[in-house]
């Protein structure tokens, strides 16, 4: 098994995108969701090692996180270019697996025409009904203002309460933990995911035209123990995409063990 520990791709705007790769075979690229990156999400490495005989798996630090750099001004298109640079290194076409809001970025990249053979999307956090409050309409603006004012902790707290749905008292305890500096370090990137989500957490139906160009075979996954709004969103996306299949993962929530995910990825790749 070949492993690259400190390799990088260079995006179109010069941003350096750090990645780690495991295994041999066709390329599989993992996109993390809001705040996450491989150094704090060990599941990515576990997936790569479990699939080392099937895939060359790439887990990367999205711009502004971990070892990757960043270049202003931000636009979702820049993150699509980041993925394009990684696919160029990995080889095309690639299978792309996206966690949470990373799944939505994967969809946007496929709609933009990147050479993606398959999409595997785990719990994109769409809010398409009234089973939870929608994001505040000024969510991204408040995130930007907090970061600009030197209050990254407030941006992280807004994400955890308004987007992730944690109670304020729980976040208060987190602010006293050893993990909080990690959240503050990635706080400037939280608005990036807010922009990626766009209006898809407003409680309205998903936009019918945003991913109309997606033709890749797509597996949409959700846990059976997850939030009801996640289940509703996964079903809505599956109904929207002609190439999509829905898979309910028994007992899981807004995460799943590497073994479960690796098995689903392997099975999907062997049948599509």
From TrEMBL:
Molecular function terms, GO-annotated: hydrolase activity
Matching SUPFAM superfamilies: alpha/beta-Hydrolases
Top-rank lineage group of the source organism: Bacteria
InterPro entries on file: AB_hydrolase, AB_hydrolase_1, AB_hydrolase_fold
Any Pfam family: Abhydrolase_6
Domain annotation AB hydrolase-1: ranges: 46-255
Record keywords: Hydrolase
PANTHER family to which the protein is assigned, alphabetical: AB HYDROLASE-1 DOMAIN-CONTAINING PROTEIN, HYDROLASE, ALPHA/BETA FOLD FAMILY PROTEIN
Name of protein: Alpha/beta hydrolase
Organism of origin: Actinoallomurus iriomotensis
């Amino acid at each position: 098994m070949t492993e690259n520990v400190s390799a990088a791709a260079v995006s179109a705007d010069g941003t350096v995108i750090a990645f780690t790769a495991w295994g041999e075979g066709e390329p599989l690229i993992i996109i993390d969701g809001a705040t996450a990156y491989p150094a704090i999400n060990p599941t990515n490495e576990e997936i790569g090692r479990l699939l080392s005989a099937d895939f060359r798996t790439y887990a990367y630090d999205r711009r502004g996180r971990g070892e990757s750099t960043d270049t202003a001004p931000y636009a979702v298109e820049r993150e699509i270019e980041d993925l394009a640079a990684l696919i160029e290194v990995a080889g095309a076409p690639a299978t792309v697996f996206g966690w949470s809001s990373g799944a939505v970025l994967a969809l946007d990249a496929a709609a933009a025409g990147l050479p993606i053979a398959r999409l595997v999307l785990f719990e994109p956090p769409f809010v398409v009904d009234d089973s939870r409050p929608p994001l505040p309409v000024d969510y991204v603006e408040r995130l930007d203002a907090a970061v600009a004012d030197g209050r990254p902790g407030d941006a992280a707290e807004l994400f955890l309460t308004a987007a992730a749905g944690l109670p304020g008292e729980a976040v208060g305890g987190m602010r006293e933990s050893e993990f909080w500096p990690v959240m503050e370090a990635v706080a400037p990137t939280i608005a990036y995911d807010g922009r990626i989500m766009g209006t898809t957490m407003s409680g309205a139906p998903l936009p019918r035209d945003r991913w109309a160009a997606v033709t890749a075979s797509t597996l949409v996954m959700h846990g059976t123990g997850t939030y009801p709004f996640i289940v509703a969103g996964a079903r809505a996306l599956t109904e929207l995409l002609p190439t999509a299949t829905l898979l309910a993962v028994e007992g899981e929530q807004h995460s799943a063990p590497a073994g479960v995910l690796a098995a689903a990825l392997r099975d999907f790749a062997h049948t599509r």
